[in-house]
Amino acid sequence: MPEFFCELFSEEIPARMQARGADDFSRLLTDALAALLPVNVRTFYGPRRIALAADIAPEAVTAGTSERGPRVSAPEQAIAGFLRKHGAARAQLRQEGDFWVLDKAGSAEQAADFIARALPAMLRRFPWPKSMRWGGTSALTWVRPLRRICCLLDGALVPFSLAIEGDDGHGLASGRLTEGHRFHAPAWFPVESAAQWQAALRDHHVVVDAAEREASIARQIAACAAAADVEIVEDAGLLGEVAGLVEWPVALRGRIDDAFMDLPAEVMQVSMRVNQRYFATRTREGRAAPYFVFVANISAEDGGAAIVAGNERVLRARFSDARHFWDLDRRTRLADRVAALDGIVFHAALGTQGARVRRIVRLAELLAPLVGADPARASRAALLAKADLTTGMVGEFPELQGVMGSYYARHDGEDDAVADAIRDHYLPKGPADPVPAAPLSRAVALADKLDQLASFFAVGERPTGSGDPYAQRRAALGVVRILRENELRMGLRDVLRAAAEPIAGENAAKIAGDVLAFVAERLRVQLRAEGARHDVLAAVFAAGADDDLVRLLARSHAVATLLGTADGINLLSAYKRAANILRIEDRRDGPHDGPVDASVLREDAEIALHAALQHCIDVERFVAAERFADAMAVLAGMRAPLDAFFEKVTVNADDLALRANRLRLLAQVRAAMNNVADFGAIEG
Known about the structure:
Helix content is 51%, strand content 13%. It starts with a strand and ends in a 10-residue tail after the last helix. It folds into five domains: 3-59 and 110-192, no CATH class; 63-106, no CATH class; 210-329, no CATH class; 347-531, Orthogonal Bundle (Hypothetical protein af1432), CATH 1.10.3210; 560-681, Isoleucyl-tRNA Synthetase, Domain 1 (Orthogonal Bundle). The chain is flat, with a radius of gyration of 35 Å.
């Protein structure tokens, strides 16, 4: 199959947009060239280019079509007009019912012509997250000024232009040239194929494969650190970003002045990452090391000495700024900053950060006994938790909120557990983060997240399918993880009601129910991601709206275990059969509730099922005692009599009293099983 190759060469593309741009390029081109059946699609991206190579068919073949024309009885003029419109002869018509039909043969178009026709429109509608205009001669936009388009089919130029009527498209037209490294090899050179393009660019100091650049950077920075007997602080996000900033990565190591080594390690790391894209280092023992590693985009003749010196000078200035904030912030006690939170708006409908802190304090005191923490210290930690939002350091580096509060609290002589809780109450921020483990940290972290959920729900700010601007899904998942991973037992409904009361008032109970359902849904999503029976969790929650997540999980696990056995599978099938019968018959003359009349029972199978149901009173007792395995054993014991009942007993008997009694028997079976879970909501 012929090889198609296209490179879009521009000014520097922001690193965060490159991978998405390459994916969009691949998707749009694959769609645009679908008639050419592209396969073996490969994409490349870097600071100044995105490119794609694929194998395609030599021509695009369109299927034949049929056009229905005038009626057979239509005037001759109408038929002649139809033939003129389609450039056809009378002999090509065939009769189909009362109409003339014209069969039009499929057509074939050479791949080069098809590409030249499809690409200009596709490139003009390219969906960059942000685009810019340049030059003033065209309405064509691009992420950065687009300079050149290379488009080849089996090494031959595919000619096309981006000009349209009244718009010159910045004079852009396809060619067969590309450019190497901006400094090492800026000359243009011709492209013959994707492989030659990749190899020639390497000769011109450009590594075009993003994964290869990233792997090279990882090896180089590790080697730089190892040469100084230190380690790189892992930062996958920074590694990916740097790989999008350089075409020819060269790692270099600089030294941090000893005068700055007493700054908090997190301050140094964030300052280097955010401002300079430097990699921090640490000693083998885990302490901050006096070195940083960065990646240059050139191979300097002096081995990088001048570049290193320049970056060390820049870093001294950055750390001097950090030193200023560090020294200035510590002049004011954290406790004295709390009042300033009343001047920071949290949300228009929810008031200030100060008001929010007061809600969190109240909630932390309530939660403390439930998680094994001291209420007084929980109150203190919650009071100080947001105070660092008023500091210069957090104003400069918002990523350090909580972290700086912890440092400043220790400087002020606060209890270590209080300082730890200030640091940890934002955790977990993401799926890879640990959850707070200390009792005090758990109390404040839960208070923070539960207030966030309850208060936003109370003012009608809830996540939608398309957005979650206040990160409520993350907060709910944080609650789930803290409770689950610490195996914390608590009734969430009462806690959520208390959280909602300051905002929702009398409506707090309903808000609590809504938030509880939302949290349970996050738990279900988490189980689905883990490959567990998330449908069972939903069924168990629906059965009783249990608000103890640990108990809810244990109960779900017991039901899932039962459903993994032959007894459980057959029992579920029999339950659904009983539920279907009851649904139909209840619509006719139900509901069929009430006690079963034992004197009306006739068949051995229905007598046996009635006897088995007498043991189901133990199900409620076992569930209440959290003896879920025992409850499942009782339900499993119903499998055989229920199977026999459906095999040997006619539910809709002619005798109306007998029919009603048997329907009540099935209703009791359904009710007994629904004490454990809504089995009707379980898949299978």
